[in-house]
Structures are given as C-alpha cells and as structure tokens.
Amino acid sequence: MTTPMQEQRPGQPVDPGQHPWHRFVALGDSFTEGVGDPEPMNQGGLRGWADRVAEELSARQPDFAYANLAVRGLRLQQILDQQVGPALAAMPDLVTLSAGGNDIVFRRSDPDKLAEKIDAGVEQLTRSGATVVLFAGPDWGTTPVFGQIRGKVAILNENLHLVAARHGAVMVDLWCLRDLTRPGMWDPDRLHFSPLGHHTIALGVLQALAVSHSLEPLQPKALPPRNWKEARVGDLAWAREYLVPWAIRQVRHPTGAPLVPKRPRPGPVFGHGHLPAVHPAGLPAEPLPAEPLSAEPLSLNEA
User: At residue 45, does pLDDT exceed 70?
Assistant: First the structure.
C-alpha cells in the first residue's frame, strides 16, 4: 500500500508542507478521543494521538482543518452509524478509523464478524477518495485480564490487514509497535494510553503516512504557548461557543447531557476554534453545538 506521497517519492519522507492532505477527520472511541492524555487547553480537555497528528500535519499548511468525531464508550456499529455519515459530509481527504475495541474487550465479540462490518465502513470511506488509516490493536499479552482476549485481538488484526489491502488503506500496526509494551505508555487503568503512549502512536501514524515531522521518540511534545492576544481571543470564543450554550442548556435541561464529539466540525488546529476546555474562572466547558451521539448504557469502565 502506498500513500499519494510515497508515489511521488518512494520510501522518502516529505516536508510537512508538501503532504497532500488539507482536511482530516478522526473517527472512533476513547482511543481516538484522547482519553488518558489530558490537556486543559484543548477542546474536551483531552489531546491524544489524533490531535498530535493534526498539529504536525497543520505545520506550514495554512488551510488545514481537523475534526474529531470520536466518543468514548461507542462500539463498532455505533461508530459506523453515527460517525461515517458526518465524516463524509465534511469532505475530508484524510480519515482515520479505529473501532471494535470496546466490542472485543467488553462484549467478547466475534472478530471475524467485526471485520466484515469494518470492511463495509472502509469501503464507504475510500469510495469518497479520502486516504483512510486503520489501526491494528495493541498486544495486551502481559496485561492481567485483558491478556485473555489476546487471541481475539490478533484475529481481528489479521482481518484488518486484509481490509486495508483490499481497499488501499494505510495500516498502523500497534501490535508491532513494541515501545507500547513499556509500562509508561499506559494510563493507570491499563486500558487507555498515557500521554507518552499517545505521542508514540502519533509518531507511528506520521511514519505510516510518510510525513516528516518534529516528534522525537519518548519525548512528548508540549503545546505551543499562547500570547496574551491569542488567550483573549480564545476566552471570547470560549464564552460565545461554550459558556452561552452551556448556560442555556442548564436552564432548559439541567440533567446530564449526552456525549458529543470534542471537535464536531473541521476547523483550525490552533488559533480560532482552539478553545480552552476549562475557563480560567473554573466554569464548566461544553462541546461545540452538535447533534448528540448517544451511546447505549456501558459496562463498568467501558472505554
């Protein structure tokens, strides 16, 4: 499988400003949402590998836009039903899809049947002309309890490699990314990745796309600091797009709101639209207005 860049310069990473992608949409569950990689200044209070990839892809690409539709706890069919349509409507040229983890971990689902559903979803996405990135799951072999599903993960991974080959998708193989077996790569819950783990995955995605980047192994990159003007613009944008809708919802619907994506519409990675997740005064943050992506009741600790 080759990406558009690899066709131009086989085996050679290219300058970030030369990559062909301008609109990136990430689909999935807690893995793609960024759980385990907290960042108060990011939308939703999380960063994660997808944000880190978008940060690199946006370098010297002024019109680059990024949306993240991932919602924790969703299973495969929910992701396909609720996220593929909005993703295609955004007209992306780069899509990442990671789904099925909650089905395997918490439902002990049949990996062959999951792969059939993923195959259908990937066909929809690739038909749009977008570059599609898939993920083979990590090796939980040394993890208590989760080690019991190692065989199912391996079977799903093999199927995903076939799906990627069939549709010309890019594969990021987390099982073969052996750095992820280090204890520091995982959140204390042993289910989600730590900031270091998300950084390592972002590096793997960029390498799979053959994009040169500024990430260094085992050295998570901090967000760039904002000057006072950028901070003020961010606060005003937060008040307009977070505070006011939140206050209205508290009056109309005081109960808990359904889960929604942290970046439901494509927008700049930084600058306008890069809103703080928590206002300096400590007021709660709410996602940008979007159609709720409701999930069915989850098992205890479901990701």
Answer: yes
